[in-house]
Structures are given as C-alpha cells and as structure tokens.
Write a structure and sequence with these properties.
The chain is built from 15 helices and 11 strands. It is of the alpha+beta class and about 450 residues long. A 5-stranded mixed beta sheet has the order 9-6-5-10-11. The protein has a two-stranded antiparallel sheet with strand order 1-2. Strand 1 and strand 2 form a beta hairpin. Helix 13 packs across helix 14. It is elongated.
C-alpha cells in the first residue's frame, strides 16, 4: 500500500537549501486503477490541489507586496498595523479568501489599500477574464456559464451569465479602442495585391425596428488562400477582420476596415480586389480604401449573384430558362442576361414570382459595371467569390448571433461581441491584444 504527498515549499533564491515555508497541500493513497475514472487523480482532486497551492502562493505574494510598504505615500509617516481584512480573488477554477494586513499612517491617518480590488484593480485573474471573454464571444452567456460550471465542478457567482456579459462587453469595447489608437503607427510589409470581402447581415433587435444590419469585412493577401482538399472549403493563413453594428453612418466599419487593410500591407502601391454582395453600403465601405491604394477592381460576388438566382422558385420549364440566364452572367454578358430576364418577365403571370424577377433585374442593373467574366477569371486562377475563402457574415455574425431565433440584440450589447469575434478571427490581433484589453477594461 502506498500513499502520496504533495508539498509546497518556498525557499531563499540565494540559498535554495534554505526552506522558508513548507506546507502539505494534498495527501491520498495510490491504488491500482480499474477504469478510466480512477487512472488519474480525478478532477475534484486536481481542483483541490489548485486551490491549496494557489492559496499558499497568493498568501506569500500578498505578504511580499505589503512588506515593501514602510512609509505613508501621503506624508512619509510611519505605517502601523491595525487588523486584517479578508478579500476574495477569483481564478479560473477556484475562489480564494485572501487575508490582507491593514496599514494606517500614524501621522495623517491614511490607510493603504487592503482589498484585492484596490491592490490590482479587479477581483478576477486575467486568465479567468480571458476565458470568460472568449466563451462570451463564441457562445451565449448562459451556455458560457454552463461550460465554466462543468470545468469548475461548481456553480460560482463570478461565472454567472451577467458577469460573463459584463466582462465580454468591457473587453470588446477596449479591443475597439486599441484598434483605433494604433491606426497611425501601423507598419506592415507592403502588399502588391489585397482581396477585400465586405458583407452585411440582419439581426433581430430589441429596438423599434424589426432588425438591424451588422457590417463585416475581411482583407487578406491572395497568397494566404490554402485548400485542405478538393472537396473542402479553402482557408486563410492570415487575414484581418472588421465588424460593426453601430448606427454611426458607417464611421466605425470604415475606420476598422482601413486599419485591417493597413495591417495586411495596404499602401499606394497595392491593387485591391473588392468583392461585395451588391448592397450600396457594402460598396461604400470598399470605396473607402480607394484613396489609399494604387487602384481597385470591384466585383459583384458570384456567390451572392448565383444565390439570388437559385432562391427564385419557378416551375421547372421556367427554371430551365433562368439557369440559362445564369450561364450568360457567368460569362459576364449582362446585356443578354437582362434581355432574357425581361422576356421571362413577360411570360410569368404569378405576381409573387414576377416581383422576384423584377428585383433580380434591378439587382443586376445596379451592379452591372461590377459583373465580370467569372468564367475567365476562374480559369486564370483569380478570385471571383468570397466562397473561395470563407463567409465573413457566417464566421463573424451568424455563428454567435443567430444560433437561437429568440435572440434579440441591442447595438450596445452586440457591438463589443463583434469586435471580439473580429479580433479572434484575425488570430494575431487577439493574441497580441487580449492582455492589454483585459488590463484596461472597465
């Protein structure tokens, strides 16, 4: 029969053999495992070990911090001890009741900070805030609460959905501030060519109107496109994303898109290929890059154009004619396509289908100068659709904001999530900014 013992020690750096503190953290017996549950310590024991070891380390860190306080910061008077104060620190898996020595100036009565919040400006560890923020950006707040409960093996007040919402919104807003502040100091290797996708998605809202539109953009270099295999969607090795739902005359989405472009190497020597779904507000975001680049090619995204046609339900005979019209559009022949659509319009008696064809005609006319020979472009290996990379609306909006139909959003509640999702989707943005965002979040 064997037992094990895990011991905590603190020692003198100059003389490692000199043990300052020693404490047994955990003791248990060692038995032969019979199944997958008893092969390890078990999650409960692991959390207990984290609890006791963290308690020991935090105690000594607080003690060390207070040992440096010898004089009053107000008048240089002597600080005297007058009792202890208990304060709670929340970490990823555990909560810690921390004893802090209260210190008071004998001369002016000033009291030094004696709570965790006053010492480090928060009661939560940075790692816990990062996890809450990442979960809040990808799952509903209640789902995030359940996930944290599962891994902590307990329902903790710090992980309730309201708290996760608060942290997510605070960090998301700070990410937006950091992005805006770095606009004038960005330095990136100049790109010869960049591809820009701009799209929009409608989301149910708590406001007076039925829905509101969120705008998204992603910009990347053509060489960043990679394919997994013949039958799977391509992916990007590097990209910069932007998103906004603010009602600010597109100020944030345009500014964020420009910043995303600069991160990817946008300069006055760069050719930009812009792919949009055809909406005027998407084209205006794309056009905001024109003064900053060498030149720009604007293309109506083939995916959106083909979906417009595909979504029109017609009898089989008329559907065949519509597919032929799509053939003309694939080759960039808008004149023939519009002529055939007008002929088709005259043969349809049903008002509902008539309206759909009429809308398609207007859609093509409004974007006529942006419909190109997609067939030739594909043969030349050039991008002609956002589907070659990925849908910005799907990755930045729908996966988080449309997962449940009962969801209703306010602009103030949704925009921080979009900032986070854009940063996380950009990968390098989140990796380099999450610490600053968390440290400076309200």
């Amino acid at each position: 029969m064997k037992n094990y013992r895990i011991i905590y020690q603190s020692y003198d750096v100059k003389d490692p053999s000199k043990i300052i503190t020693q404490k047994t953290l955990l003791e248990d017996n060692i038995t032969a495992p019979t199944n997958c549950f008893d092969i390890s310590m078990g999650l409960g024991k692991q959390i207990e070990l984290v609890q006791t070891s963290q308690d020991a380390v935090i105690f000594e860190k607080i003690e060390t911090l207070q040992q440096t306080k010898t004089g009053c910061s107000k008048c240089d008077g002597e600080l005297i001890k007058f009792g202890n104060q208990y304060s709670t620190l929340y970490d990823v898996f555990t909560d810690h009741k921390v004893k802090i020595q209260r210190l008071k100036c004998n001369a002016c009565g000033y009291e030094s900070p004696s709570t965790i919040r006053r010492l480090i400006n928060t009661t939560q560890s940075g790692d816990l805030k990062k996890i809450q923020t990442t979960l809040g950006a990808n799952f509903t707040y209640r789902e995030s609460e359940d996930i944290l409960k599962l891994f902590s093996m307990s329902s903790r007040d710090i992980n309730n959905h309201d708290r996760i919402k608060h942290v997510t919104e605070a960090v998301g807003n700070k990410i937006a501030d950091i992005n805006e502040s770095e606009k004038d100091v960005l330095v990136a290797e100049e790109a010869k060519e960049l591809i820009l996708n701009v799209d929009g998605g409608h989301i149910n809202t708590v406001e007076k109107q039925r829905s509101m539109e969120a705008m998204t953009s992603v910009i990347y270099r053509p060489e960043a496109i990679r394919s997994n295999s013949k039958d799977t969607r391509n992916y990007l090795t590097s990209k910069s994303c932007a998103a906004s739902v603010r009602d600010d005359n597109q100020e944030q989405i345009i500014s964020s898109t420009i910043i995303a472009g600069l991160k990817q190497g946008l300069s006055n020597k760069t050719h930009v290929t812009a792919l949009c779904d055809g909406a005027a507000n998407c084209w205006s975001v794309a056009e905001s890059l024109r003064p900053l680049c060498k030149d720009m090619t604007c293309i109506l995204d083939w995916f959106h154009l083909s979906m417009k046609i595909q979504n029109i339900a017609l009898p089989e005979k008329l559907k065949t004619k519509l597919i032929r019209i799509k053939w003309h559009l694939w080759r960039g022949n808008t004149k023939n396509a519009l002529s055939r659509l007008n002929e088709l319009l005259e043969t349809i008696k049903d008002d509902k289908n008539n309206k759909k064809i009429f809308k398609l005609i207007n859609y093509i006319r409004n974007n006529q100068n942006k419909i190109i020979n997609y067939r030739e472009r594909k043969k030349s290996g050039l991008v002609f659709t956002s589907q070659l990379a990925e849908s910005t609306v799907e990755s930045l909006i729908n996966r988080r904001c449309k997962g449940q139909q009962h969801m209703r959003w306010s602009r103030e509640g949704l925009n921080p999530i979009l900032q986070l999702r854009a940063a996380i989707s950009s990968k390098t943005d989140w990796a380099t900014k999450w610490k600053d965002a968390i440290l400076n979040a309200a």
